[in-house]
Amino acid sequence: MEKKIAFFDAKPYDRLAFDTVNSDFGFSITYIDAHLNAQTVRLTTGFDAVCAFVNDILDGAVIGQLAANGIHIAGLRCAGYNNVDFKAAFGKVHVVRVPAYSPHAIAEHAVALMLSLNRKIHKAYHRTRDGNFSINGLLGFDMYGKTAGVVGTGKIGQCLITILKGFGMRVLAYDPKPNQDYAREAGITFVSLEQLYSESDILSLHCPLTPETEHMINVQAISMMKNNIMIINTGRGKLIDTEALINALKSGKAGSAGLDVYEEESDYFFEDRSTEMIRDDILARLLTFPNVLITSHQAFFTEEALTNIAQTTLGNFKEYFDGGWLKNEICYRCGAVCPKEQNKRCF
Ligand code: NAD
């Protein structure tokens, strides 16, 4: 029998990508505009699976209700899973994700933010369209020879490093699990966070959001940074204490910021709120800076990534319904670092 998937936070581009790929799978997908949370979980009655995205909430209450509704598989159509209480999920609901769909998409977007901020493309675009061909105030710097600090050298961090090395940048990296063979091959140096902060002209965040990394960019971290640093965040919003960033931008300590994620993004990002006032004063303040570029969690948004996301997500559901090994299941104990081989997982 056709398995029924309740697909939350559905957008037109999701429907297009999933409907196209689903012709090979034959699931019955019901697209639901709402986020999955404690209020909307009742909509899952009668379904066999749920599909969720970055701002859906799979906390203990939602997991409990899913299990009570007979749903034992939740497929995240994203890599990050900080929105899942996976300890609550253990033994009740299998949670699968898309560990890699296009690390290039996110790395390339991080570079787009860097270049736009550096060469002030966002300002130039409006000037020339307004008949203003002055370049006064648009002065940038050569990327060549500057130092980039990359926090997190997983799939995305490594793609970014390849691009930055192509610019002729010196790259410093921090990762709690530094791979020295990789560092030698890539021509980069693993350093402490303190050294990375104090020597980087551009800082880019590519680590997961965990209790250890929450607000890692705070007043203390910023105080260690080089004056005029550019801070890029395509990881997760809560990696940065936004009020501390705003103060650093106001004082001139931080030179610019490119943010694809924001700690309170769930009420705004992915939605058209252009006819309303912004009630979030911190977001509104960020949007007033000429040296801040905000994109709405779009780093993943390439054709290749969307197709890969749909293929892996529906493949994850197929594995579950076929009774197979769930290679993309989140480990309830260690998360992404759990050994991937069957029977070697730590749960
Ligand atoms: P990955 O698992 O391949 O790499 C993460 C790296 O971070 C690993 O090398 C890990 O050792 C390291 N790390 C763990 N804890 C750390 C810490 N405390 N400090 C520094 N490094 C640490 O993950 P990935 O595919 O490269 O993705 C990285 C993050 O990017 C994801 O967790 C997700 O939050 C975010 N992401 C954002 C988007 C977007 O559209 N903006 C899309 C995909 C992923």
TrEMBL record:
SUPFAM superfamilies assigned: Formate/glycerate dehydrogenase catalytic domain-like, NAD(P)-binding Rossmann-fold domains
A GO term for molecular function: D-lactate dehydrogenase (NAD+) activity
UniProt xrefs under InterPro entries: D-isomer_2_OHA_DH_cat_dom (IPR006139), D-isomer_DH_CS (IPR029753), D-isomer_DH_CS1 (IPR029752), D-isomer_DH_NAD-bd (IPR006140), D-LDH-like (IPR058205), NAD(P)-bd_dom_sf (IPR036291)
Keyword field contains Oxidoreductase: yes
Location of the D-isomer specific 2-hydroxyacid dehydrogenase NAD-binding domain: 111-299
Protein origin, superkingdom: Bacteria
Domain D-isomer specific 2-hydroxyacid dehydrogenase catalytic intervals: 7-329
Keywords: NAD, Oxidoreductase
PANTHER family: 2-HYDROXYACID DEHYDROGENASE HOMOLOG 1-RELATED
Family membership: Belongs to the D-isomer specific 2-hydroxyacid dehydrogenase family.
Name of protein: Hydroxyacid dehydrogenase
Organism, scientific name: Candidatus Raymondbacteria bacterium RIFOXYD12_FULL_49_13
